[in-house]
Automatic annotation (TrEMBL):
Origin: domain of life: Bacteria
PROSITE patterns in UniProt: HTH_MERR_1, HTH_MERR_2
Keyword DNA-binding in annotation: yes
Protein name: MerR family transcriptional regulator
Coiled coil: none
Species this protein is from: Actinocorallia libanotica
Keywords on record: DNA-binding
Residue ranges of domain HTH merR-type in the record: 1-69
Gene3D superfamilies associated with the record: 1.10.1660.10, Leucine-rich Repeat Variant
């Protein structure tokens, strides 16, 4: 079969067939009397094999190795192609997101576009100082869309840069709150923790719904940040998480202060005291945790707390008994 016939039947141009031949990928089986290339059925099958591998994104030099090396392992080839494809998709996805951010900023001209690109590059820098300078510049009317700000907040590991970014986001209005709430569903606990911190600063005593959702988070730090913020805002739903913090010794002093704030209402005080007393009575509660729970009772008013402290002053654990005795003296002095 001559080259023109092969091109028509295979869909591969005569020019590309000659290119394959120049790379050593394809060699016509013979020549006609007039010197024209002549392709056999085996040659045609090789052409289709070449095209199949090319369709997977394999470069021509690697196609040749795959077809000519008897020891070539297809599984390794497929794994490598999967890796390359994922990298390419990630790069394209990042580019698409960047273009979307630029479009959302509605730049008036090329200077605006270049400014946004520069800020985005700085925010993505590996240098924390460069990221912080970019974050601080966002208060100078740099036209960066809220989506980009939220993404930067959720991805920022440096506490100083994160603080600057959260401030910039808070200045942008409430548009980022819904996006931050979506961050509470992120697979990584550190991202969810950053989302909670930012929500606390953005709401500043206002909306509490996203923080209430964070109380059920599987990560202790995420729950803790939400509970402390809600406790300061007088939300009783935070009580169980705050008591858990006292037991675990994670920011237990702050948690006890938040419980004290919540106990200003007599009914709430009784519920908080009952929760503390319940854990004090459990055999599974360790000695150190029982001391912290006893200390937490100090600022909880009401009969339940006072009665519990009186009983704890005779506790078998000397440290607990001394703590309860000292607290009772302070309460009686007032």
């Amino acid at each position: 079969m001559l080259i023109g016939d092969v091109a028509r039947r295979s869909g591969v141009s005569a020019r590309m067939l000659r290119h394959y031949e120049s790379l050593g990928l394809l060699r016509p089986t013979g020549r006609t009397g007039a010197g024209y290339r002549e392709y056999s059925g085996e040659d045609i099958r090789r052409i289709f094999h070449i095209e199949s591998l090319r369709s997977l994104g394999l470069p021509l030099r690697e196609v040749k190795r795959a077809l000519d090396d008897p020891g070539f392992r297809p599984a390794e080839l497929v794994d490598d192609l999967v890796r390359r494809t994922r990298e390419r998709i990630a790069a394209e996805t990042e580019l698409l997101a960047r273009l979307g951010r630029i479009a959302a900023a509605e730049p008036a001209g090329w200077e605006d576009v270049l400014q946004i690109v520069a800020i985005l590059q700085d925010l993505g820098s590996e240098n924390a100082g460069r990221r912080q300078r970019a974050a601080l510049s966002l208060g100078e009317e740099v036209p960066l869309p809220v989506e980009a700000l939220v993404e930067a907040v959720l991805n920022e590991p440096d506490p100083n840069v994160a603080g600057a970014l959260r401030w910039a986001l808070a200045q942008s209005g409430e548009g980022g709150l819904a996006l931050l709430a979506e961050g509470l569903a992120a697979p990584a606990a550190e991202v969810r923790e950053r989302a909670v911190r930012a929500i606390v600063e953005m709401t500043d005593g206002g909306a509490t719904a996203p923080l209430r959702d964070a109380l059920a988070d599987p990560d202790r730090a995420v729950r803790g940040h939400a509970a402390l913020a809600l406790g300061a805002r007088g939300v009783a739903d935070a009580v169980p998480a705050l008591i858990d913090m006292v037991v675990e010794g994670a920011n237990d002093t702050d948690a006890a202060d938040a419980l004290s704030t919540l106990s200003s209402d007599p009914a709430s005080a009784e519920r908080i005291a009952a929760g503390l007393v319940d854990l004090l009575a459990r055999a599974s509660t360790g000695s150190a945790a029982r001391r912290r729970l006893t200390q937490a009772l100090a600022d909880i008013p009401g009969e339940t707390a006072s009665r519990a402290l009186a009983e704890l002053s005779h506790d078998e654990d000397r440290a607990v008994a001394l703590t309860a005795t000292y607290i009772l003296k302070l309460r009686n002095a007032h």
